[in-house]
Fold this protein.
Amino acid sequence: MTLYLLCLFLFCVGLYGVLRKRNIVKIIVGFAIMGYAMNLFFVMLGYKMHGRSPIAAIDQQVTNMVDTVPQELVHTSIVIGLGLTALLIAIAIKIYEKCGTFDITKIKRLKG
Amino acid sequence: MPNNPLAGMSIIVKSITRIIISMVMVFGIYIVAHGHVSPGGGFAGGVIIALSFVLLMLAFGKGVATSKITKTIASNLESVGALMFLLIALSGFSGGAFFMNILAKGAPFKLFSAGTIPLYNYVLGLKVGVGLFAIYLAFVVLEKAGKRK
């Protein structure tokens, strides 16, 4: 239970970065931290005590292995997170070109 | 590699990059090739290959990597990767179904085994490697386009 609460705390760190910070780069880092917290949560849900990785090996009988479905989900989620981060960075670069600042309180002209 | 002292980072970074870059690329190819017998596979190996190109670009400046792989070549290679993945999947119809493994399976835990699964890994490694490098390249091109204004 403590581990899940720590995971929630990590998610809240990311949420704080997204909601409270004014620099766009810090907001992007907050998004990334939120994604990592969710990935960690999913992998922890699938963990079994003393379970080993679900990979077959030569001359070994794998009996007690962790759940594979959350790991596949997290693999997909990492790829989507990569695309999301790339998109956010591209938007940030465009905003910097247009307004010359990363501070979201100083971005005035939205049109034109 | 061109040795322009003005472009890129310091001489220390350049020397270490010269030693390390081949190892990084060979490790990525190893991860792709052993994707069906050990952890790894097309995506992870492709990321490592793309990062070796990004390292080359960071250490030696923009010109070195973009002279080897331009944006057009990168996007074309990425499309070729996706199309070849689809072709291998469609070739399963000759065995009866989509994604059917039609080749000989071979012995387990050998490098050349598991039918078409290694082929999917190679093609996916190509697509992911070139695609990730194209994302990085797009940021550089974006920066250049912004300066021209």
